[in-house]
Design a protein that fits this description.
Radius of gyration: 12 Å
Order of helices and strands: EHEEHEH
CATH architecture: 2-Layer Sandwich
Strand content: 15-25%
Helix content: 25-40%
CATH class: Alpha Beta
Number of helices: 3
Number of domains: 1
Structural class: alpha+beta
Strand order of the largest sheet: 2-3-1-4
Amino acid sequence: MLKPFLVAFDSTQLSRQSLLDHLDTRPEVKNWFAFLPSAVVVLSDRTAFNVAACIRAGFPTQQFIVTEIPQGGNDGWLGKNVWEFINNPRSSGRWPT
């Protein structure tokens, strides 16, 4: 089952594109949605620990946080497409699920 995780990082130290390029190489990451300059929603069937480990593998000195976004336990002011991605997680199809 795919779960959404919020990844927040220091965009003054790590470019969002560098992070996204790295995420594209990781089979643990089934999909992602970049919606703010320093935040990405990552879909995975793993734990927050596993998602963090895959980011740490590419950026061992960067500060970031990974937290699961609980179904029904979140709120904010985001576009409908972001909420659709979070509430109905789907793989990009790049990696087998």
